[in-house]
Structure formats: C-alpha cells, structure tokens
Amino acid sequence: MNAPSISNIESDTMNKILSALILTAFAFSAQAASHAGAAPMAASAAAPAASAAKKEMKKEEKKVEAKKEEAKK
C-alpha cells in the first residue's frame, strides 16, 4: 500500500489554505464592489426626487402668497 507521504499531506493542506485565502479575497472584493456601486446610484436617484420636492414646495409657497395677496385686497 502507498501511505501518504508527509510532503503530499503538506501539499494538500497548503492547497486548501491557498484556496480558502483566494475565496475569501474574492468574497471581500465582490462585497466591496457591490457597496461601492450602490452608494452613488442611490445618491443620484435621490437627487431628482429632492429636486421635484423643492419644485412642489415652491409651487405651494406661491399659492400661499397668492392667497395672502387676495386676502389683502
């Protein structure tokens, strides 16, 4: 029978450790990439909504001012 030699055991262990390190590095880089892409997209999506909200507020202010002017007359 061929018993596994120490060099084969060490090589097998080294391969497993190396694979684990590579997978961990890939997982971290994938997570970082997904978070980096999400932040600017959310910020750019919020900008038009904020702009629309400001326009609505200005319209409401104009309506209130017009009502005040009518009440003075």
% residues in beta strands: under 5%
Number of strands: 0
State mean pLDDT (0 to 100 scale). 76
Taking pLDDT < 50 over at least 5 consecutive residues as the criterion, the unreliable ranges are: none
- Helix count, DSSP H or I runs of 4 or more residues: 1
What does this structure look like?
This protein has 73 residues and is an all-alpha fold. 92% of the residues lie in helices and 0% in strands. It is rod-shaped, with a radius of gyration of 32 Å. The model has no long low-confidence stretch (mean pLDDT 76).
Outline of the structure:
The chain is an all-alpha fold.
Which features would summarize this protein structure in a list?
0% strand, 73 residues, single chain
SSE layout:
Blueprint: H1 6-72
